[in-house]
Design goal:
This protein is of the alpha/beta class. It has helices at about 5-10, 10-25, 40-45, 80-95, 115-130, 140-150, 160-165, 190-200, 315-320, 355-370; strands spanning about 60-65, 75-80, 105-110, 130-135, 155, 180-185, 200-210, 215-220, 230, 235-240, 255-260, 270-275, 280, 290-295, 300, 305, 310, 325-335, 340-350, 375-380, 395.
């Protein structure tokens, strides 16, 4: 199902004409001159905390959200009523792309509150005419029970929390789940396969960030699952070299940059996301004509430098999930007990797997080849790696403490 086919299937020339008009109306800027303009960054929001970047009076804003502030001062974002309407439309498109429609039971296990995840998909699913279960996060055994009792067909949560819920599902065949909409943290194809196997559903990716709107900036469709469709009538996407800021071509991995074309309260021109991905514009099997962005392969600020080697957590995840004896749960510990950095990978054995020194040596060898450095491995029993009810805390780096 396509929620708004009159826009989502626009011919590319018509879509670009719409973008030009909206860019000119919102910022007085021509599309051709965009690469020459300066970037906006999260630092701009923090420097203007809390409301210094608002472009409408605060009394016209009907909602406030905020980031967690994990990496510094929280960023505050505000929405007018029209902003909330466009956000609901974007999330409705995401639910429709996952196979939802009027009457579909949608279980939302993203957190509600200042975090944008829960409320965004909640109102998007309602806009589509779905029946929403606002479960939020926490009480994981009850989440599994509600999925079964209420016959939810679509599950919305972080990928790591989907696996935590799966730990409490004894018989996936008793669930009615057809699809899952997972995002808010990086995840790999291997993790997608683990979730699909554990919950017997089709897993699709949703992408967003609160500075741009929240979840629903882009989302995958169940037909293609070959990139998340960027809602280009609202968000103009660029990919740039993270070091130089120079534009990159389609298919090249770089930093995602977004310009908001319709937001009122907090519009951004060329906002640097810090997320690394590529963009493609070939037609999709589903009929949507929007550009598609690849899965986020890392962040410019989550790359670990260990003994001079650049290490992305996603590369470790890919290596671990390729080993059938291991469960899809892990944690990375980075320490400096002496003069050198040390990386320890805590992984978890699948139920019934004996582990042992031979498997540990094999995992260490596999990681060494993938990363180009030596990492220590600790293999624990099922359930030994802490579970998360929201965004997974994959990396504990104590070097700066």
């Amino acid at each position: 199902m396509i929620f708004q086919p009159e826009v989502e299937t626009l011919a590319r020339p018509e879509l670009e004409r719409l973008q030009r008009e909206r860019l000119r109306d919102r910022f007085g800027v021509e599309l051709e001159s965009l690469p020459e303009l300066p970037f906006a960054t999260k630092a701009d929001l923090r420097d203007a905390y809390p409301f210094g970047l608002l472009r409408v009076p605060l009394e016209e804003c009907v909602r406030i959200h905020a980031s967690s502030g994990t990496h510094g001062k929280a960023t505050i974002v505000a929405y007018t009523r029209n902003d909330l309407d466009l956000w609901a439309d974007c999330c409705a498109r995401a639910v429709a792309a996952a196979g939802g429609g009027p009457g579909t039971v949608v279980h939302v296990a993203y957190g509600y509150g200042l975090f944008t995840g829960g409320l965004g998909l909640h109102y998007g699913a309602e806009r589509l005419g779905c029946t929403v279960v606002p479960a939020s996060g926490g009480n994981t055994p009850r989440q599994a029970q509600l999925l079964e009792d209420l016959s939810a067909e679509i599950l919305c949560c972080t990928p790591s929390y989907a696996l935590a819920i799966a730990d409490h599902v004894s018989e996936p065949a008793r669930l009615s789940l057809r699809a899952g909409i997972f995002g808010a943290e990086p995840w790999t194809e291997g993790l997608r396969e683990s979730i699909e196997h554990a919950l017997d559903l089709v897993a699709v990716d949703i992408y967003g960030l609160s500075e741009i709107v929240g979840p629903g900036v882009s989302s995958e469709c169940v037909e293609g699952r070959a990139g998340a469709h960027v809602n280009e009538d609202h968000f103009l996407v660029e990919v740039v070299d993270p070091a130089t800021g120079d534009p990159l071509g389609d298919g090249e991995v770089g930093e995602l940059v977004f310009t908001t074309l319709t937001k009122e309260a907090l519009p951004f021109l060329r906002y640097r996301t810090g997320d690394l991905a590529s963009v493609m514009r070939e037609p999709c099997a589903c009929g949507r004509t929007f550009a598609r962005m690849s899965r986020v392969v890392g962040r410019t600020d989550d790359m670990l430098i260990i003994r001079g080697v650049n290490v992305f957590p996603s590369e470790i995840e890919r290596s671990l999930l390729a080993i059938p004896e291991l469960a899809p749960h892990y944690r990375l510990l980075v320490e400096r007990p002496g003069h050198l950095d040390e990386l320890t990978v805590e992984a978890e054995l699948r139920e019934g797997e004996p582990g042992g020194e031979r498997l540990q040596a094999f995992v260490e060898e596999r990681l060494g080849r993938a990363l180009g450095l030596t990492a220590s491995v600790r293999l624990g029993p099922p359930g030994s790696v802490p579970r998360s009810e929201g965004k997974a805390l994959r990396v504990i780096d104590t070097r700066g403490l």
